[in-house]
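Annex B. Sample input.
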Amino acid sequence: MNAPAEIRDWYQGRFTRFEEGLNGASHSPLHALRRRNFAAFASHGFPTTAEEEWRFTNVAPIAATQFHPVLAHEVRQFTEQNLQPWPLIGSGIVLVFVDGHYSRALSRIPALQAGVTVGSLAEALLKDPALAGRFRATEQGGADAFTALNAAFLVDGAFVQVDERVILDEPVHILSLAVSNGAPLLVQPRHLIIAGDRARLSVVETYAGKGPGVCLTNAVTEIVVGEGAAVEHDKLQMESLSSYHVGTTLISIGGEGSFTSNAINLGGALVRNNVNALFEGEHAECTLNGLSVATGTQHVDNHTVIDHASPRCESHELYKSVLDGDSRGVFNGKIFVRQDAQKTDAKQTNKTLLLSDGATIDTKPQLEIFADDVKCTHGATVGQLDEEQVFYLRARGIGETEARDLLTFAFATDVINRVHVEALREKLDALLHARLRQGRVNVES
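Annex B, continued. Sample output.
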């Protein structure tokens, strides 16, 4: 569907201003890529519920808001003290982004071992313009309006590269803050993470918000897993309940490579997460785990795609939701098994716990299999707390509220316990306790 004229004109004006500020850089191959993606966005516009992939998620509030893309780093009175609400995970590398732009002053980069490069994507592109060729999503941006919009205004993000056979012991923490005190802001970080053959790497992404204004965070993270490499990617989204978050993670996995994703969603008024993994070599493994905790009128949509384009690969997927109040969850998980992808082993599970009569979930696990020698299963369950288990705990002197909280926490921690970064796992335990308590208070009030 074409974009309404008003919205198209608004973003066209922003894009024109962006071009005018680029000077000679407007003739670069990178900007040619931006132009193609803006044309795709302008042609298609934001998705509507008439499209199958967006049937359960209405982005009309986003389409109706004139967001201002943050195209240049603004000097802000922002210090390390402002970061205290969001503890930096681990003692290693920390890359901080404010409104999508790298903050060298707030980041922490200790002496790096040989074969490790981290920092600003904008700076990396200046040094090596060919890096833009690693963006798998940009050439395909027309199929996804949000990814196309991100590529159209591509400016900065994190660049992490670990060379062949290098093992990075400490996780890299990428902290993205959306700070809005006035006009609605469009914050669009673009992260590129590359693990060379036989490399080992762990990345933690945290998204948070500050200020009373409305923000749309439209983030794209691309991860390249080399042959025999192992990457764990943990994402924590805890933005303002008055803002919107659209996150797209694209992963390519080489032969014998291993990728693990743990996606935790706690914040945002309307959230859409896209996770797309592609097997590009044999004997590779992909694990996708997710936990969403929502209350009030929050809407959280998780869309995953695992593309078994190579034989003898394994994928494991577990997504859970805890929904309270009048919140709504969506899960759409697709597993494609291509014709030549024989000996595929794929398992997909979606489980939802509804804590109130007003909470709802739309779940749609899918398998599309074109090979004949495979083992594939999928399933979904939706339910409430087991009253027999509640009674069992109450019979042992535990109050009803505490009993329900214990059972809910046990349901959710199944995903949190799969996070290997100890500091993050401890933080998630505390956040989950606080978040469940907040949801119960909202329902009781």
